[in-house]
Amino acid sequence: MTTSSATPDFDGRRFKQLERAGYNLIAARYAAAAELRATLHTALLDAAGLAGGQHILDLASGPGILAQAALPRVSPGGRVVASDLAEAMLAESRSQHPAILHAAADGERLPFVDGCFDRVLCGLGLMFFPNEALALAEMRRVVKSGGRIAVSVWADAPQVPLVECALACMRRLLPAPKVARLSVFRLGDPERLAGLLSATGFTEPHVETCELQSSFKAPEDYWQAFLDLAGGAAGSLSRLPAEILAKLQGGVAQELAPYLCGEGYRLTSRVLIATASRAQPV
After folding, report:
1. Distance between CA atoms of 134 and 140, rounded to whole angstroms?
2. What CA–CA distances, in Å, run from 282 to 70, 130, 145, 146?
3. Is the distance from CB of 107 to CB of 82 less than 8 angstroms?
4. Listed residue (263, 167, 161, 253) closest to 212, CA to CA
5. Tell me: the pLDDT tens digits for 139-195?
6. Is the Cβ–Cβ distance between 87 and 25 less than 8 Å?
7. What domains does the chain contain, in order, with CATH numbers?
8. Alpha-carbon Rg for the chain in angstroms
9. Can you give the pLDDT of all 282 residues of the chain as single tens digits?
10. Burial of 50 (0-12, 13-18, 19+ CB in 10 A)
11. What is the distance in angstroms between the CA of the first residue and the CA of the last residue of the chain?
12. How many CB atoms lie within 10 A of CB 172?
């Protein structure tokens, strides 16, 4: 079960615990699968308008790949802080990217003083915050007047086969989960996303679309790629019996069938990239 907004049976604290545990479980594999998201990193950094000397916060940074990619853009004199709730993700980042700073933090309660960053980034993370309005308010609080945020989120489910094929397979073959979950596509409407930014007090909201191309030789390759990105879902799946996991791995071929191209599968997924500014005092 997924929800498009918090419902009475949704437990935000438990959701965070599940996501944290799931991402801790896949930290090393998530970093290794970074090539799948390289074009998204470039597009988000381009939209952010980084420059030398800026101080940058990367929220939901995971293994620090986006944060590390930002560092050359703010050099010389710049500083990048990678922040995440999952400590294993941060440990992976520290081991691979010693030149950036790290802070374990909940994006809905950031441990930073007001107005201390020139830019705040959040790549494919905002939809995992149970209270996205609170997370955006925290981004606005810690960014300087005249500063900017740049976030990316998955578009609507039909436009994201990289994720939706696996989720559809799970809905078809597994019983409904006992714990309500937020949909990773819940911020996939451009107008809604821009409206959220405006409602939080940001100015000049702008939303554009970026396409992500991915290819897989076999359903098994696709399924493993999904597991390497899936966070809380990966944690839940890891507790299933081996025969059920094998059924999912083979069964996803049904959902992938529309994307068969030659001897493999080619998927085009869409991501929304949104930017907005914190207005300077008049």
Report:
1. 10
2. 30, 33, 11, 11
3. no
4. 161
5. 999 999 999 999 999 999 999 999 999 999 999 999 987 777 789 999 999 999 999
6. no
7. 2-156+179-212+270-277 (3.40.50.150)
8. 18
9. 333 355 556 888 888 888 888 888 888 888 877 777 888 999 999 999 999 999 999 999 999 999 999 999 999 999 999 999 999 999 999 999 999 999 999 999 999 999 999 999 999 999 999 999 999 999 999 999 999 999 999 999 999 999 999 999 999 999 987 777 789 999 999 999 999 999 999 999 999 999 999 999 999 999 999 988 887 787 788 889 999 999 999 999 999 999 999 999 999 999 999 999 998 876
10. buried
11. 47
12. 12
Can you give the three-state secondary structure of the chain, one letter per residue?
CEECCCCCCCCHHHHHHHHHHHHHHCHHHHHHCHHHHHHHHHHHHHHHCCCCCCEEEEECCCCCHHHHHHHHHHCCCCEEEEEECCHHHHHHHHHHCCCCEEEECECCECCCCCCCEEEEEEECCHHHCCCHHHHHHHHHHHEEEEEEEEEEEECCHHHCHHHHHHHHHHHHHCCCCCCCEECCCCCCCHHHHHHHHHHCCCEEEEEEEEEEEEEECCHHHHHHHHHCCCCHHHHHHCCCCHHHHHHHHHHCHHHHHHHEECCEEEEEEEEEEEEEECCCCC
- Quote the CA–CA distance of 210 and 148 in Å, as a whole number: 19
Find the length of the chain.
282
Per the structure block, which two tokens stand in for 193?
């996303």
Q: In this structure, what token pair is assigned to residue 184? A: 């990773």
Copy the structure tokens of residue 141: 């609080």
In the block, residue with structure tokens 């609507």: 156
